[in-house]
Amino acid sequence: MERPPHSHRDSLHAYHPARGEPPTDACAEALEASLADAELRAWWEAEQAFDAAMRDKLRAIPVPGDLRGRILAAAASEQAMAAKVEAMPSERSNWWHWGALASTAAAVMFLALFYTFFATPTVLQAQPNDQLQSIMAQLEAQLDSGEVERHRSEDYASLVRHLDVAGAPVPKFIPAGFDQQSGFACAYLEVDGVPVGMMCFRVDDGVYHVFTIDRRHLPDQQDLPREVVQTVNDHCRATWTRDDQIYILVTKEPAEKVLAML
Amino acid sequence: MSRPAPEMPPEFEALVAEYYQSLYRFGFSLAKNEADASDLVQDTFLIWARKGSGLRDQSKVKSWLFTTLYREFLRLRRRSVRQADLDPEEFDRELPAVESDTVNQLEAQDALAALQEVDDIYREPLALFYLDDLSYKEIAATLDIPIGTVMSRLSRGKAQLKRFLERKV
Fold first, then answer.
1. Do the Cβ atoms of B108 and A14 come within 8 Å?
2. A43-68 mean pLDDT
3. B136 vs chain A: nearest CA distance in angstroms?
4. CB of B111 within 8 A of CB of B103?
5. Residue B76, exposed/middle/buried by CB under 10 A (0-12, 13-18, 19+)?
């Protein structure tokens, strides 16, 4: 007996009459062919019975009983977190417009030269204390080791949520050079018993790590209202405080780029 | 850190109630484990909460959700797509005659296990076809492939599925 044309079988494989969907032209042709072809018709009937049996079996797969509740809880939590993120003051300002770009670049170059060659710690400018310096060194060592386990996402709200759930400090301010779209990973770290939230940003192929520490964990650290920029080994770091948080920006990009981000 | 979670709008809760089970089963067929499937469903609804609720054509909600879950799956796991270049006719010649009665004798988990053995590119349309009752047009839109490709992949996928089912009986 001649086998039914496989093109008819292929067409019928995708057709589910009970769904009420109109058949494609190819399906309609195959259905018509089945009227005159007993073998094709028998095959089609067996196929429908097989599909129905598979459908019943697969739809009996149990769904976790708490999944619905978890989805609603996560959505509500994210809604709350998104509101919190939106409420953060934006560090972006109008100086980043094209019209001011040239003067900004000049200022950045001046500051870069100043910090690189002339800036020395003075009693007038507070510095990161020994404990904070130690933490920064350990954080940089962890980065260099490549053993930091990061949560990766292109969705900034997801990164914030991850840090929040982990109990890590979430940055309340984002440096001006970054936006939420440039965030790509985060991690919870603990150094000398101090919880640290790490948020990673990528700008123009440069990777920047912003570490956040709650000031209550380092009560002896003085206010750092101005960013303190240091180059240690091959890392450039900027440190400052704002409200109840300490921020550390670490990168292997040059100091002038760091200054442009702040 | 914990804070009282605000309630979600009733429309969102209704949407979750309507689709979370079918999305989970689709997610399970892709990820092959409960934890990842649950995460995929959760992420899909979170993306909906952020972006999808602005969808104007409400008739496309279901398709949007499945498409989003599928894209999330692809994004989170780089697939190594093995383009099995098999001739369906060759498949059919060797195809075991698996009847519906045979399937009825199986446990649901066995049927799922057989489905999960099917190559990714065939399993995806099969899962949408069996688990979620998507039309072939919706399957094509979800997987971003032509309708003709849906048909041929369903055909080849069923051929593979029957092979794996035969081993289970």
1. no
2. 88
3. 6
4. yes
5. middle
Query: ipTM of the predicted structure?
Result: 0.74
pLDDT exceeds 90 at position B143: no
Contact B165, B102 (CB under 8 A): yes
CA distance B140 to chain A (A): 11
DSSP letter (8 states) at residue A216 = G
pTM of the model: 0.51
Write down the pLDDT at residue A233.
78
B19 CB-near residues (< 8 Å, 6+ apart): B62, B65
What pLDDT is attached to residue A194?
92
- Residue B147 and residue B162: Cα distance in Å, rounded? 23
Using an 8 Å Cβ cutoff, are A208 and A253 in contact? Answer: yes
Among left, alpha and beta (phi > 0; psi -120 to 50; other), residue A61 is beta
Contact A168, A254 (CB under 8 A): no
Residue A209 · residue A237 · CB < 8 Å: no
- The residue that leads in pLDDT, A191 or A259, is A191
**Interchain proximity B24–A70, CB inside 8 Å:** no
Tokens coding A240: 């400052």
The residue of chain A nearest to residue B148, with distances taken between CA atoms, is A11
Q: Which residues pair with A151 in a beta bridge?
A: A186
Per the CB < 8 A criterion, the answer to whether B157 and B125 are in contact is yes
**A209 close to A250: Cβ distance less than 8 angstroms:** yes
CA distance A122 to A128: 12
Put simply, the answer to whether A71 touches B42 (Cβ < 8 Å) is yes
Contacts with B52 (C-beta within 8 Å, 6 or more apart), sequence order: B61, B64, B65, B68
Number of cross-chain residue pairs from A and B with Cβ atoms under 8 Å apart: 145
Percent share of chain A, pLDDT over 70: 80
A20, closest residue in chain B (CA to CA): B135
Strands (E), A151-205: 151-152, 183-191, 194-203
Rounded-to-integer distance, Cα A251 and Cα A209, Å: 6
CA angle (B88, B93, B98) in 5-degree steps: 95
